Amino acid sequence: MPRWPRSLRGRLTLLAAVTTAAVVAVVATVLYVTLTAQLSNVVDDALRQRARDLVADLRARGVEALAEDPGAQLFAADGSLVASSPRLAFAGRLLSRADVRRAARRPVTREVERSREDAEVVVRVYAVPAGTRVLAVAADFTTVDRSRERVLLALLAAAPILVGAGAVTVRWAAGRALRPVAALTAEAAAISATDADRRLPVPAGDDEVARLARTLARMLARLHVAVERERAFVDDAAHELRTPLAVLRAELELALSAPEDRAEVERSLTGIRAEVERLSRLAEDLLLLARSRAGTLGLRPEAVDVGAAVRALAARLHRAVPLTVSVSGPAAMARVDPARLDQMLTNVLTNSARAGARHACVSVSRPASVGPASVGPASVDTVRVAIRDDGSGFPSEFVDEALERFTRADTARGPGGAGLGLAITAALARAAGGSVTVGNAPTGGAEVVLTLPAA
Q1: CB–CB of 352/389 below 8 Å?
Q2: pLDDT tens sequence across 112-154
Q3: Long-range pairs for 192-196 at CB < 8 Å and ≥24 separation?
Q4: Which pairing describes strands 446-453 and 333-336: parallel, antiparallel, or unpaired?
Q5: 8 A C-beta contact, residue 19 and residue 150
Q6: What are the two backbone dihedrals, phi and then psi, of residue 279, each rounded to the nearest 5 degrees?
Q7: 3-state percent breakdown (helix, strand, coil) of the chain, nearest 5
Q8: CA-to-CA distance for 431 and 422, rounded, in angstroms?
Q9: How far apart are CA 80 and CA 77, in angstroms?
């Protein structure tokens, strides 16, 4: 049982061969039928004209008119042969009695085979009523019949050639068209994690293969960027973990070097506890970012009064950081996870305190529409939380990357910060269906705008 070709080139070749064979068969059939009909019509037209002339001669001159015709026979109504042209002596009767009876009612055309001089002759006969009798005129149809046979043989001989030529042409064209695909396949197979900088060859033009190559090249570039970001993420995480681990090691060595000094041991253990807490916060932040990328944060959104939540946070936060927070704006209900809202606001306000701000103003509003956000989709029915502080603001070169992981402005670098606060805020806002934008207020200081879906 024949198997379907596995390669696209083979399938296209087989399909082209089958299609070409079907087309050739249809065209050959139409050509043969048309040519045969044309040749037959030419002979039939001549026979009809002879029959009309001979019927008129029979009426005028009688049976003697048959002697001058190259091939005619006259039959009586009962089917008996009355007279025949001398040249048809070899042919005998051209019509059977049944044919004569049919011809007495309407014209009849038929072909008969006869032997003449040890050769087969095909005779075309046309019979029409001639008064009470039937007149049959005949013509040698052998040449036409042989022409039909030659045409049929020529078509049968040409069909395989045409099918083969079509299949070979399609196979060549398919191979040429798929050559860039083979190059793409080979190059893609050669690319590994160690040489991710390699790029796929993009053929010239604007056909489907070229568009596919450009799409794959762009996809590979995006994957390369994603891999580089993950690499940077791992490097930054390792760098951030190195410092607290080094401090832990130093504190442990210091405690072990003077076990009899109780005060020194207590100071070392206090430092160790602080570093352990820092490591725990860093691990939790990294886990939260990983879950946000995987979409498994497990948020529990509910209707929350954002103004009340900010006021409650400000009261708690004032005891931990030297930052005074004022809240303004009407009551606005947002649909958000309360714990995650608290975490977002805490991250932003803590960053303000760490950057040297002493006062922050939180403005809550319900705008009719919002503009495009830097992170997350914009929504028409939203709650807008604008946080402005009186610090030095974001450096202009840092604004574009402020929401990235492990990024900190030089003025904000200090103990306790890993550069994840705003990145986590942006991830939580996206997960809640909101957005975050950062910048500097016109009056100075940093401005962070948090947009949340309204309840």
Answers
A1: yes
A2: 887 776 677 888 899 999 888 899 998 888 878 888 888 888 8
A3: 193/227, 196/223, 196/224, 196/227
A4: unpaired
A5: no
A6: -65, -40
A7: 55, 20, 25
A8: 14
A9: 7
